[in-house]
Amino acid sequence: MIIQCLEAGPRRFSELRVPLRNITSKVLTQSLRALERDGFIVRTVHARPARHVEYELTSLGRSLLDLLDAARTWAEAHLDELIDAHETHHPPAESANTPPDSRPDTSS
């Protein structure tokens, strides 16, 4: 998700927080550091006019964009099959209001 957020160009941490609002600041920071360490992004500190940090994809990071698009396209094409398979192995849970002792025994 971070890589896709950086597709259009460099962004500040606060700009990444908007589309990635469900990710905590701590996890976002850890993820950015890991992506930088692995060569997918570069972190640039700008001292002027006001100190700020920007994150940008490297050429290695950009090389992932086509793969991510292909994975998204595949997932969209097979979404119904994926949902069916998931529901087959993870049927909807029974009502949370049903006491455990009154549920039918399905262990056999």
Topology:
Blueprint: H1 2-5, E1 11-12, H2 13-17, H3 25-37, E2 41-46, E3 52-57, H4 59-77, H5 79-89
Antiparallel strand pairs: 1-3, 2-3
In the predicted model, the low-confidence regions spanning at least 5 consecutive residues are: none
Strand composition percent: 5-15%
What is the global morphology? Answer: elongated
Largest sheet: 3 strands, antiparallel
Oligomer: single chain
Please give the order of strands in the largest beta sheet. 1-3-2
Elements, N to C (H/E): HEHHEEHH
Helix content: 40-55%
* Number of helices, counting only DSSP H or I runs of 4 residues or more: 5
Our measurement of the CA-to-CA distance between the termini, rounded to an integer number of angstroms, reads: 43 Å
Instruction: Compute the CA-based radius of gyration.
Output: 21 Å
Q: Tell me the total number of β-strands.
A: 3
By secondary-structure content and strand pairing, the structural class works out as alpha+beta
Give the overall average pLDDT.
Answer: 87
